[in-house]
Amino acid sequence: MSLDLAPGTADPTTSDPTTSTATTSAATTTVAAPATTDGVRAPLTPNVLRGIVRELAERPDRWIHHVRLSTDERWYRRLVADEDHEVWLISWLPGQSTGFHDHGGSRGAFTVALGELEELSLGGPEQGLLIRRVPAGTTRAFGPEYVHDVRNTASGPAVTLHAYSPPLSSMAHYDLRAGGLVRTSQEGPEQW
């Protein structure tokens, strides 16, 4: 099932970001995940998810009217809910963060459409804590085991688009301690 982002305003001559797409320099191509032997679609790759969020970010007319800012916590809204992937729109005020979390085995990608964020992840024993600045126009993609913390350390708001495949079924949260990450809680779709 797809949710129409702007009912009655779709241009039939342009690609629809509510479908799985990958952008190439020559054209936009619809990509269907191959079916596995039991008939279930395989998850989309991080690279395909990267293309989905990049393409959608380039079409703010499809999502900007949904953005809300909340002083209590990050604001979010699911824009696409398909069998093989979902897309979320998230707004961030300065100081808001996710804390360290995983994606319940889903692959993912996110792009910063407006503003700037910071991403923290562990790079292994020899690299320690990695801190990346993620300015507008930057896209990050990751596999099913990825754990990170995303935060707005800038002085203004930020807006991001996130895609996950398969759609999120759970997320675990972690504390960063001297010995590494320690799992502290888990949530499911009923909390979103």
Please, could you describe this protein's structure?
6% of the residues lie in helices and 39% in strands. The chain has 192 residues and is mostly beta strands. Strands 3-4-11-6-9 form a 5-stranded antiparallel sheet, with helices on one face. β1 and β2 form a beta hairpin. It starts with 20 loop residues before the first strand and ends in a 5-residue tail after the last strand. The model is unreliable at 1-30 (pLDDT under 50).
Outline:
With 192 residues, the chain is mainly beta.
Rg? 17 Å
How many strands, which pairing sense, and closed or not: the largest β-sheet?
Answer: 5 strands, antiparallel
The poorly predicted ranges are: 1-30
**Overall pLDDT confidence:** 84
Shape type:
globular
Keywords:
single chain, 192 residues, mainly beta, three-stranded antiparallel beta sheet, 39% strand, globular, disordered N terminus
